[in-house]
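seq:
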Amino acid sequence: MRIRMLAAAGFLAGTALTATAVAPAQAAPTQPAPVQAAATKAAAGWDMSIGGPIRSCASASCGVVYNTSYGQDVYWNYSQVNPAGNRWYHVTSPATGWIYCANISAPC
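struct:
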């Protein structure tokens, strides 16, 4: 009786191993999956100001239109990288102009 139980257990174990060994292995991807645009590009909207000026153009040399304070909400509708390679956000509230990316909580 004991031998039959061991034989049956061995048969079941062998069947299970054979079933897993027959299944083809999945190949690892050769290239990483592409990053979706939504993950890399921030959506326009409200962000918190770290404090800094809203300028008349996307450059530190442009005139100051409005000075934001820390914690103040600003609304931006798009961003651009200027010729110097710095990201600026076009702000429409509390004033219309440009704010440097390090001056608000939106990503640089």
